[in-house]
Amino acid sequence: MNRVWIVDDDTIASAIAKHLLGRHDAFELTGEYINAVEAIQKLQAESKDNPDVILLDLNMPVMSGWEFLDVLLKDTSLSIIPVVIFTSSIDPRDRLRALDYPMVIGHFVKPINFDTLHEINVLLSRS
After folding, report:
1. What was the pLDDT predicted at 2?
2. Can you give the pLDDT at residue 38?
3. Inter-CA distances, 46 with 20, 34, 40, Å
4. Partners of 54 in the beta sheet?
5. Which residues pair with 107 in a beta bridge?
6. Which of 2, 8, 37, 79 could cysteine-pair with 52, CB 3.0–4.6 Å?
């Protein structure tokens, strides 16, 4: 079972994701953060409890998803954690920019759905 963290300030999108993750037998929600800084602090503090995949929003206050990815990229112990971007942005430049981050294994537009979770499970099995 894949341990999942949600890092997203959108409480409605997070609630949908939590509901669907709870119904999918390949995933277990083990962390939920509305602030990317808190998620980074938790990742840096407790590597034994780090997730198998992070569902990440891009547009957040305090620290954006891009800034979050920059921190992961600079830390070799964290840059191995697969990240799936979930964003409300449909800007193709975001999809292209995500290619600059080797830990990003997927990029999806919100809201999450059951088919998307299946796709993420397939991506994780390949990484």
Report:
1. 94
2. 95
3. 26, 18, 10
4. 5, 83
5. 85
6. 2
Burial-class residue 34 by CB neighbours within 10 Å (0-12, 13-18, 19+). middle
Identify the H or E element spanning 116: helix 114-126
Q: What are 48-86's pLDDT values in tens digits?
A: 789 999 999 999 999 999 999 999 999 999 999 999 999
pLDDT tens for 106-115 read 999 998 899 9
Q: How far apart are CA 78 and CA 30, in angstroms?
A: 17
H helices, E strands: number in the chain: 5, 5
Contacts 24+ apart (CB under 8 A), 113-116: 113/20, 114/20, 114/23, 114/24
How far apart (Å, rounded) are the C-alpha atoms in residues 123 and 38?
Answer: 26
Query: 12: burial class by Cβ within 10 Å (0-12, 13-18, 19+)?
Result: exposed
